[in-house]
Amino acid sequence: MTDKLYKLVSKESETPVSIAIKEAAQSVEKVLKALSPSSEERWNEPPLILAAQMGLHDFVGKILRVCPQSATYLDTKGRNVLQVAVMYRCEEIVKIIMDMRTILPFWLFSKIDPKTGNTILHLASRGSPDVAKKDQDEPDAMQLHYDLVWFEMVQSSIPKELVHSRNKKGKTAQELFTSNHKQMRKSCKKQLVGIAKTCTSAVAAVVFAMSSSFSHTDDPKTGDSRMFKALSYTYVIGLSFAATSLFLLLSLVNSSYKEQKFRRAIPTKFFLARLTYNMALGTLLLAFTFNTFLQIYGVEGAKEKQEITFMLEIIVCPVLTCLLLFFPDAIFGTFRRFI
């Protein structure tokens, strides 16, 4: 193709058209050189298999509903659509196939690879393809939990007699899962312990610093009674959340971190610790606001407009920072629409 393009422009003088054709020919040549044999073979696969590899769950679902028999199509390596979806961890596609199991061939869920002896549960034990990449950084602290949930979902789809099936290497899917996730378990443990220690120190420091600077007397001559009550309530609530968060974080530090603990025990502790930690920070921030108000206005108090302005001055910066940290895509996407 590139030879024909070069012959076409060699007979013509240098014109904008000939220059454009030369550039196009060079681009095509670079693309053809970049194509590896595996990428060329990819386009010989059935469309259903390609869609499963790319995670196009809507496309796969429509094809299977119109033609359930297409689930029996195999790729060049002898894999069906369910095996490919499990290998590439396309959860939506696996759920679609599980919902359609009454109209799909039964052997789809019980097929064993003749070369390796692997069931689809063995394929699910490999974990997330993104985490398996060599250039991937440390996995998320809860990645092992996500992999356990994924493994159990695939396990519920296969016949019970295949749950403990051994492959050609003599390993069950559970043994393979444990072997493949040893390093991930250590990494998740390291991250969770580090997070727990950091948050514990931060909560203890904040509570100690704020308790030493608060007004502790409800005297009308020294402060606004209404603000003092708000200060007292928010500080007590914040202290309660902080103490609960400290206990949960310390329990995370002292946990055993066995593999099955990542299924429910550790994620529950981590979720509750984060929740109480954020609630403690929020209520203590309000308490700090009320305390600063008392120290500034004292006996005279302040008008309603001044109170609102003061609250905004104290709270707006932390709130905006939290929004930018936790919802960056939504915020920047909204601003781009108006630019």
From TrEMBL:
The chain crosses the membrane at residues 192-210, 230-254, 275-296, 308-327. InterPro entries: Ankyrin_rpt, Ankyrin_rpt-contain_sf. Keywords: Membrane, Transmembrane, Transmembrane helix. The keyword Transmembrane helix applies. GO terms for cellular component: membrane. Gene3D superfamilies: Ankyrin repeat-containing domain. It holds the Pfam family Ank_2. The keyword Translocase does not apply. This is (wild Malaysian banana) hypothetical protein. It comes from Musa acuminata subsp. malaccensis.
